[in-house]
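Entry:
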Amino acid sequence: MIRSVGTLRYSPEIRPGSTTRRDGGSTRWWLIVDADPELGRYLRHLYTIYHRRTRLLQAPLWGVHLSVIRGEQPTDSGAWGQYDGEAVEFDYDPVARETDGYVWCPAECDTILDLRERLGLAREPSPPLHLTIGNARYLR
């Protein structure tokens, strides 16, 4: 595992002023950790090289990020947004995996799991914590 740092972002906007996703859903109860864009570019490059330059990836819509909460309304919503903009350290495995065109790396972060519990959510998210580095689903 490799250590990195990111920034907590609650109800992330897709475009300035908009929290509506491609499928029409909302990002109201979403929490992500923004990671370094250069880390995403590097990991996508490694993925492309591993696949002998036969696979292309585009950056995720929110850039490289950890998905912490994905539409789960917390039971303690009064604490929602309390740590917005704060830095958090996380560990990730640089060997990328792919699910339905989304490419990600497993991640670990007790701080994030503790935050989920404080919000009244299950400690472990489903799917498990992961660093989204790119996708091939929407390439044209």
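DSSP finds two helices and seven strands in the chain.
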